[in-house]
Amino acid sequence: MRVNLTVNGAKETVDDVWEGESLLYMLRERMGLPGSKNACEQGECGSCTVYLDGVPACSCLVAAGQVEGREVVTVEGLAKGSSGVDEQLDPVQEAFVEAGAVQCGFCTPGLIVQSHDLIERVPDPSDAEIREALAGNLCRCTGYEKILDAVRLAASRKAEAAAR
Amino acid sequence: MDFLRPTTWADALAAKAEQPDALPIAGGTDVMVEINFDLHRPPALLDLNPIKELATYDTAEAPVLSRGDDPPHPPVKSGWLRIGASVPYTRLINELGDALPGLAQASRTVGSPQIRNRGSVGGNLGAASPAGDSHPPLLAGNAVIEVESAARGVRMIPATEFYLGVKRNALEPDELIRAFWTAPATGAQYFSKIGTRNAMVIAVCSFAIALHPEERRVGTGVGSAAPTPRRATAAEEFLSNELDWDGRTPFSVSAAQRFGELVKEAASPIDDVRGTADYRKHALSVMARRTLTWAWNDYRANKIAGREAS
């Protein structure tokens, strides 16, 4: 079947989508967007988190056909500019790099999207709020301390930028 | 596989009538797991996301049950909530937490934020897993499920009659779940759940309690401890008579223990990967006593689930 959607601001048409396939599969295998990671395929790990109409969701649990006419933003869509030319990472992405919150990097895209949403909704989150927001994102190697550091850093950077 | 995308409720009913083996999908948090792991390959998916009314709620007159012989509980005529089947848990928590504290507490324990953004009570009802988190508060709060078919119209089914077996519910093959109806809390409500961590947990067992002071009645719901979610009716009757509704005096230790025992006796759990039957029974008696204590303390302080009664 054909699916029409907006991904990272661009209107796209995807053909030959299998009716039972997930949004995650369509993004990675048909649209060249491998940022969202495929790990558990059952909503346990959060590595495939994307925005669907502005709300974070596990893209492995959204049927591709359900996004017809809707708007998806993946981790690839958070930076401004184009890759390798004038790319400007989102403050959340920069904070993850600076805080050392990335080791193998597999969980990172999902954590970035979920943290991005948290800071949009709660500009100055408490540690409890951060832990709650990231409860559905599993990391098996970095350790969560540096991830918490990164979210705190990103929140303070965004607050500074907003105050300027 | 077919992918059906009706845009109106009438079209959805027509599609389900024409293809009764089409599997409805809303949040996808259960359905897609089964497809991703190839556990289930339905002939068609029926996408309910385009039907916007399923993600809305409003206030309504008291529902009239289809069998027509039973007044609704609580016996109030107006001010009921009719909540669309696809309203996600996140919105139940944020927007209806004051009106439905028991359901909101249960919703907070569902999966993770991403799951709660998509998952809904309609999906819980459709899947009819005995472990579904919304079932115990629906039972304790006397919810009524609105289902509909193109051929026979609406059926209003009390939650107590909705669950028929493990992952089996009262839906006919051509019916869809449209909404659930429940009256806003008039007394304290609490939900408790046993699991290994505070996120991404399928209940080992769970328990909900709701005080209905206007009827001097206690409602209960037991989750993940029988083939279906169920009420602990003997425990409800015992406690409703035992509590000092007027004087609001503390209940006795022996009354709380008896309540816990009766809740335990209402369960018929199995041993499985998440826990043993004995553990589940013990945990239920503990949760029953605990939630009773929280609820009665609120009632004595004239609070509705931690909020001052107006």
Automatic annotation (TrEMBL), chain A:
Record-annotated 2Fe-2S ferredoxin-type domain positions: 1-78
Keywords from the named record: 2Fe-2S, Iron, Iron-sulfur, Metal-binding, Oxidoreductase
Regions crossing the membrane: none
Keyword Iron-sulfur among UniProt keywords: yes
Protein name: (2Fe-2S)-binding protein
GO MF term list: 2 iron, 2 sulfur cluster binding; metal ion binding; oxidoreductase activity
Taxonomic source organism: Actinomadura rudentiformis
Gene3D superfamilies: 3.10.20.30, [2Fe-2S]-binding domain
TrEMBL record, chain B:
Organism domain of life: Bacteria
Biased composition regions of type Polar residues, renumbered to the chain: 108-117
Domain FAD-binding PCMH-type: 1-187
PROSITE patterns: FAD_PCMH
Pfam families hit by this protein: CO_deh_flav_C, FAD_binding_5
Positions of the UniProt region annotated as Disordered: 108-133
One GO molecular-function entry: FAD binding
InterPro entries assigned to the protein according to its UniProt record, in alphabetical order: CO_DH_flav_C (IPR005107), CO_DH_flav_C_dom_sf (IPR036683), Diverse_Substr_Oxidored (IPR051312), FAD-bd_PCMH (IPR016166), FAD-bd_PCMH-like_sf (IPR036318), FAD-bd_PCMH_sub1 (IPR016167), FAD-bd_PCMH_sub2 (IPR016169), Mopterin_DH_FAD-bd (IPR002346)
Keywords for the protein's UniProt record, in alphabetical order: FAD, Flavoprotein, Oxidoreductase
Keyword Flavoprotein part of the UniProt annotation: yes
Name this polypeptide is given: Xanthine dehydrogenase family protein subunit M
Keyword presence, Zinc: no
